[in-house]
Every structure is written in C-alpha cells, then in structure tokens.
C-alpha cells in the first residue's frame, strides 16, 4: 500500500518521537476526520487554507464536539502541518494563528440587529444573488446550522403555512416557523435561478444548488458569508448568524423553551448561554442611558 502524507506523519511520530501506540492511533483518527472533510469538499491537503480549517472547526461544532475534543483534533492537524513544513514537503500551513478552541469564550458573539439588516440587504453583482440572499435570510430567520441549511429539500418547506422541517443533529426533526419575507426570497430564487442550475438528477429535490447542479457545500456558503462581510465591513461567520437569531428572539421577549425547540437543542442548559448575552446587553444599555447609572 502506498504511503500517504498522513501515514508518513504517523510513522514519524512513532520512529522519531517515540509516541505511544494509543497516542498515534488518536492522531490518526483526528487526521482522518480532517482528510475526509477536505476530500468531501474537493480540497487537497496541501492546498487547504485557513478558511478551510475554520470551516472544519465549525463542522465539528455542528456535530457536537466539545471545545476540548475539538482542541485535540486541531492540535493534531497543527502537528501534521508543522511536520510537512519541517520535512520541507510543503510550505503551506493553514493552521497558523488558529486559536485553540479551549480558549474560546463561553458566551457566543451575536451581531446587532442593525448589522444583520446590513448583511441581509447587500446586493452583490453575481448571478447567484437570489440564491445567496435566500440562504442568508433563511439561516438567520430560522437559526439554522450551515449543515442544516445546505441539506434542505424543497419538500421540507410548507410555503402556505410558513414552516420548515429541519433535520438536525442525531437525525432529529424539528419544525421552525419562517416569515413571508423568507418565503418570498426562496420563491424568487426558485423562479429566477434554480431552473438553470438543475443538471444532476440526484439533486433535483435539494433546494439550494451549486453552479454544478449539486448541493451547495458548507465551504462555498462560508465563502459567500465572508464576501458579504467584506462588503459591509462586518466580521461574521455562519455561527454568529445562528447566535444572533437566538439572541434577538430572547431580547424581544421570546420564551426560552420556544427558542430551545427552534434551535434544536436537546438540553435547555445549552440554550441558556444566550441569556448571558442578553443580560450583558441590558447592562450596557442601562449603564449608557439610565440617568442614575
């Protein structure tokens, strides 16, 4: 069997570093996850960029990995690229300046309502504008994970009642209401652009199609978000949009249990983290505007 860069790295850890068998096995499992992600996205391990690593981290979040588990996996990926650099196999290292998930702040960052509106109202000079606008509006309005957004099928949307059926983590289904603005944008995309994107019979039921007629990849949508962020000058990630959905609902007086169901959280404690965000915003508003603060 022909050696791969990953297998050569594992041999290096065994022979040169003298690491234990269990440690080597853990490295192998972590790197196989990373390689499988890149292969699914059509990206070569030598050509991966920082955005690809960040997108991989977000996928791990979506799949329920804890910060410590994600940190271990990313540490393995960092070690792999350091090895490639050291052995002069590749000069590329997309993991440089990637912050360890163990240092992530526990409270997610949410955009302001003004920032979200700026993102939603951007008009980009691209033929895919109606698709991208519909995806972004739906993601915010329904609080979807990227993996959920790109997996939506036409049959999952009830255009009359204004509901979308979402298949979340653990294959758990949930119903999330969507407003008429979102429905209108989806219909515009389906009438204007989607018919010309249908090329592969295996994907005719998928709502959001790529220019090759296949399901939109998480990576492609991440790039779209980044492009929109550059235009508006707003630093944004797909996860921040989901966080903003939850935060804005709670700030508007929504019930915590209702938000839990819409987000697809199995444990209410996961949703309660957003109450810390809204409490902090209330404190800032109070300090800024209250005459006796």
Task: Write up what this structure looks like.
The chain has 293 residues and is mostly helical. The chain has a three-stranded antiparallel beta sheet. It has 13 helices and three strands. It has two domains: 99 residues, DNA polymerase, domain 1, CATH 1.10.150.130; 177 residues, Intergrase catalytic core (hpI Integrase, Chain A).
Task: Provide tags for this entry.
293 residues, mainly alpha, hpI Integrase, Chain A, 3-stranded antiparallel beta sheet, 3 strands, 57% helix, globular
Structural class: mainly alpha
Provide the domain count: 2
Topology pattern, helix = H, strand = E: HHHHHHHEEEHHHHHH
CATH topology of the largest domain: hpI Integrase, Chain A
Q: Radius of gyration in whole Å, from Cα?
A: 21 Å
Label the CATH architecture of the largest domain. Orthogonal Bundle
